[in-house]
Design a protein that fits this description.
heterodimer; A: about 150 residues; mainly alpha; 7 helices; elongated; B: alpha/beta; FAD/NAD(P)-binding domain; seven-stranded mixed beta sheet; six-stranded antiparallel beta sheet; 11 helices; binds flavin-adenine dinucleotide; binds iron/sulfur cluster
Chain lengths: ~150, ~525
């Protein structure tokens, strides 16, 4: 198994992830093709490498050789078709992209989330109004009696 | 050559830990063999920024995906529900979500009450003291007074309702349906040296704080202090027998892959509803050509999961997201048989909070909700932290064609044949799933969800039951009413395999109470020298 992508595969992948999650000025977030995020994606292919390569092969075939080399409007068209036809390998590819994108500090901040590990600070969850239980407390036992 | 031990336990999970601790006061020489490792608190994903990502790699719940050296592969191609587990000290409690209901009294009498399956040879009352002891040892939080159960007293207060819990509570009140804060095996206050829950919200792949009661931090420290030995990286290939059909010990592979023999006066199997039948079927001999203690032919048969009616929706207001333990409430409204329905038996609902940002994105992409391109960001912001969910844990009836066998080709890294699962949903389960999804949709709408979805979750084979069932008739069961194999008088089974029926609740509380009950039965019979009669 080859553990890294070829240059051509990496170029196609970068062009594809830019279609998936483009940068947005409205939300002040980078796209998934941003340098930091894309480096994280390449580093995180791990046990999905085979699937990602299979997906990219399919994409290259659909593109007549190189997806990254297509004109922008044609890239959007091919990406849309690929989204429907990519199957399990594309699902694996998409998963790696999402798990790198949604841990980027800038993206987390834009979502109002603190960019940190859950431990040790944890979070606060409100106790809530326990009097909501009052009507249930009034119910007779609902479990079935056994002989 | 290893010295002979009095008691050899195989598997250190929910049941193995409980039985080891209970037997420790006999001062017998007790050894537990566990194929996996200890997990250090610092190993858990919630210590790092990649906490969600690791759910898809070294902390994946499906062992075929996780594929650690300590895992064994499972051929699940012919099963709509895939087996999930963890192999290490603490077993699957390392990865469980700590929802901790007990079986109901009616679950032990399904044949009498509903004319299906079989009654258990024991009842709720027999287990009651062991439930209480296990609640104390495990550290259970909850609220006394639930009308769905006979009286019980969880030792700690319940986990907070949060925004999502309150929404569900109001919705259930409007519908007039039962709900209650769940019993959970999560410390809500500092408990027996364990820190309280910090609402990390990532309980399933292990709790870095130690608030979630996995048995490596509950039973095991006490059992070890009392003299029990726990040997890790010891994968048992087979249980051996002598000419009289008594177990003599086990053959296992150590950390270096070297074959070892361990002799024992008695053997207790605690490898879970898949690992146990696999080991028994692999234990073939002249005396037991079809696997040890399998004269009934039932080892591996009657596999029960809990078909999982996962249903969720999105509301306008942002809620708790993934903060806090995910499972906070239950409803037993649809638990008991209702003759007006087209199925027998029933299910609980477990109510959950939201998802982490990555799981929400992956899940919503898979469901076709989250688009590529410009709209991605806008749509995503309407999903993250807006989700609420609930799931029906449906009772699965025992059916012999649902089974664990040995795969003719697939093997683990030590060359031991792997289990193969054949499982199809029964008619009763299918109807129950439909009922649960429909009621769940009503609840979600009442709770303000503007859109609702139902989903089949393949990786929901977390409850593994029934594959070496308990009974008084040796032709219709594998173990007797106190866990001893009918065919081998010094061989016991204490894990979920021995369940006669599945009930409609998460099983671990009852699995552990049963393990304590069997340990108690062993101790009583040791004291009057009738254990092997
Ligand atoms: C993701 C997930 C979520 C869950 N959530 C809940 C929940 O919320 N509530 C609930 O009640 N239950 C839940 N469960 C189920 C719960 O974890 C199990 O019911 C419980 O752990 C089963 O206990 P056991 O003793 O039967 O087996 P396990 O705890 O699985 O322990 C079996 C042990 O045996 C070892 N073993 C197996 N074969 C061998 C061998 N040949 N040699 C040596 N060692 C061996 C394994 O490595 C393992 O450590 C969940 C499980 C998972 C995976
Ligand atoms: S929510 Fe509580 S129990 Fe769950 S991982 Fe966090 S601290 Fe542990």
């Amino acid at each position: 198994m080859q553990t890294t992508l070829t240059d051509a595969e990496a170029r196609d992948l970068r062009a594809l992830v830019a279609q998936m999650i483009p940068a947005s000025t409205t939300y002040k977030v980078p796209g998934a093709d941003d340098d930091l995020i894309f480096t994280d994606i390449l580093r995180s292919l791990e046990r999905d490498t085979d699937d990602v390569r299979a997906a990219l092969k399919h994409l290259a075939t659909m593109s007549g050789g190189s997806f990254a080399g297509l004109p922008a409007d044609r890239r959007a068209e091919v990406a849309a078709t690929f989204k429907d036809q990519g199957g399990a390998p594309l699902f694996a590819l998409n998963r790696v992209v999402l798990l790198c994108y949604y841990r980027d500090d800038r993206v987390m901040r834009s979502l109002g989330q603190e960019p940190r590990s859950p431990f040790p600070k944890g979070h606060v969850v409100e106790q809530g109004d326990w009097s909501l239980l009052d009507p249930v407390k009034k119910r007779a036992p609902i479990y079935r009696k056994v002989p | 050559m290893n010295d002979k031990v009095d008691v050899l336990i195989i598997g250190s999970g929910a049941s193995g830990a409980a039985v080891a601790w209970s037997l420790a006061d006999t001062k017998m020489r007790i050894l537990c063999l566990e194929q996996g490792d200890w997990v250090k608190p610092t190993d858990y994903p919630s210590n790092g920024r990649d906490w969600e990502a690791r759910l898809f790699s070294d902390f994946a719940i499906n062992p075929n995906r996780r594929a650690r050296e300590t895992d064994y592969p499972i051929n699940d191609a012919n099963s709509q529900i895939k087996v999930v587990n963890f192999n290490g000290v603490g077993g699957s409690t390392i990865m469980y979500t700590a929802h901790y209901p007990r079986l109901h009294p009616s679950d032990f009498k399904v044949k009498t009450l509903d004319g299906v399956a079989d009654d258990w040879p024991i009842d709720y009352q027999t287990l009651e003291p062991f439930f209480a002891e296990n609640d104390r040892m495990t550290g259970v939080s909850g609220l006394a007074g639930d009308p769905a159960y006979p009286a019980k007293q969880p030792p700690m207060p319940p986990i907070p309702l949060g925004k999502s819990g309150q929404r569900f509570g109001k919705a259930m009140n409007n519908l007039g349906w039962h709900w209650w804060p769940s019993d959970t095996s999560i410390a809500t206050v500092d408990y027996e040296g364990r820190g309280r829950c910090l609402n990390l919200g990532h309980c399933t792949p292990g709790c870095a704080q130690g608030a979630k009661a996995s048995t490596d931090i509950t039973y095991w420290p006490l059992a070890l202090r009392a003299g029990v030995e726990l040997r890790t990286r010891a994968r048992v290939r087979e249980i051996t027998v002598d000419n009289n059909g008594m177990a003599t010990g086990v053959v296992y592979y150590d950390a270096d892959g070297k074959e070892q023999f361990q002799a024992a006066e008695m053997v207790i199997v605690a490898c879970n509803g898949v690992g146990t039948p696999r080991l028994m079927l692999n234990s073939q001999s002249g005396k037991f050509p079809n696997g040890i203690a399998n004269s009934s032919g039932l080892v591996g048969k009657n596999l029960m999961f809990h078909p999982y009616a996962f249903t969720y929706g999105y509301v306008d207001e942002p809620l708790d997201g993934n903060h806090g333990p995910p499972l906070c409430l239950w409803s037993h409204e649809f638990y008991e048989t209702d003759k007006a329905r087209d199925f027998v038996r029933g299910y609980i609902f477990q109510f959950g909070r939201g998802m982490g940002s990555i799981v929400e994105a992956i899940n919503s992409t898979a469901a076709g909700r989250l688009p590529w391109g410009e709209d991605h960001h806008k749509v995503y912001r309407g999903l993250l932290n807006h989700r609420i969910y609930l799931a029906g844990i449906c009772e699965d009836l025992p059916e012999e064609h649902n089974r664990v066998t040995l795969d003719p080709v697939l093997k683990d890294s030590d060359g031991i044949p792997a289990p193969k699962i054949d499982y199809t949903l029964g008619d009763n389960s299918r109807k129950m799933l439909e009922h649960a999804h429909s009621r769940a949709e009503e609840i979600l709408k009442e709770a303000g969800a503007h859109t609702v979805f139902r989903e089949h979750v393949p990786n929901s084979g977390w409850h593994l039951l029934g594959t070496a069932r308990m009974g008084t008739d040796a032709e219709r069961s594998v173990v007797n009413e106190w866990g001893r194999c009918h065919d081998v008088k010094n061989l016991f089974i204490v894990d979920g395999s021995i369940w006669v029926t599945s009930g409609g609740v998460n099983p671990t509380s009852t699995i552990q109470a049963l393990a304590l009950y069997i340990a108690d039965a062993i101790k009583q019979r040791l004291s009057n020298a009738t254990l092997f009669e």
